[in-house]
Amino acid sequence: MDKINTYEDFLKIIKQDMVVVIAKTKTCVVCKPLSEKLSNFMVNYPSIPAFEIYLEDVELFQGQHLVFTVPTIIVFSNEKEILRESRFIDFSKIERLFSLYLS
């Protein structure tokens, strides 16, 4: 997964048809294994890009997108948030969304 370093980069990235962003912090113990699980999950969907964003590095993201807990996975489509999963991530919801999108 690529890393988003600035809020301006984020705004360019979400203009795509569909993109997945995982918000995390550098001190979060759960974030690293969940990020790896997301990377492995996204191998099945090579046409959908996935990115990680550290809230310490891009503080504006946390306020603009109301991220109150980490890890948070947000799926965007053409600049609009269409799915959000926080803390306890249900990958089956993400999989259903992708199957609808790719059909």
Write the layout of secondary structure elements.
Layout: E1 2-4, H1 7-13, E2 19-24, H2 31-42, E3 50-54, H3 59-64, E4 72-77, E5 80-86, H4 91-102
Parallel strand pairs: 1-3, 2-3
Antiparallel strand pairs: 2-4, 4-5
User: Could you say what the CATH architecture is?
Assistant: 3-Layer(aba) Sandwich
List segments where confidence is low: pLDDT < 50 over at least 5 consecutive residues.
none
- Trace the largest sheet across and list its strands: 1-3-2-4-5
What is the SS-derived class? alpha/beta
Number of helical segments with 4 or more residues: 4
Radius of gyration: 13 Å
DSSP strand content: 25-35%
Straight-line distance between termini: 24 Å
Provide the helix percentage. Answer: 25-40%
**Count of extended strands:** 5
The succession of helices and strands, N to C, reads EHEHEHEEH
The named CATH superfamily: Glutaredoxin
Biggest beta-sheet profile? 5 strands, mixed
Quickly count the domains: 1
CATH fold annotation: Glutaredoxin
What integer is the average pLDDT? Answer: 95
Description:
The protein has 4 helices and 5 strands; from the N terminus they run E-H-E-H-E-H-E-E-H. It has a single domain, classed as Glutaredoxin (3-Layer(aba) Sandwich), CATH 3.40.30. It is 36% helix and 26% strand. It has a 5-stranded mixed beta sheet, sandwiched between helices. Helix 2 links the parallel strand 2 (19-24) and strand 3. By secondary structure, the protein is of the alpha/beta class.
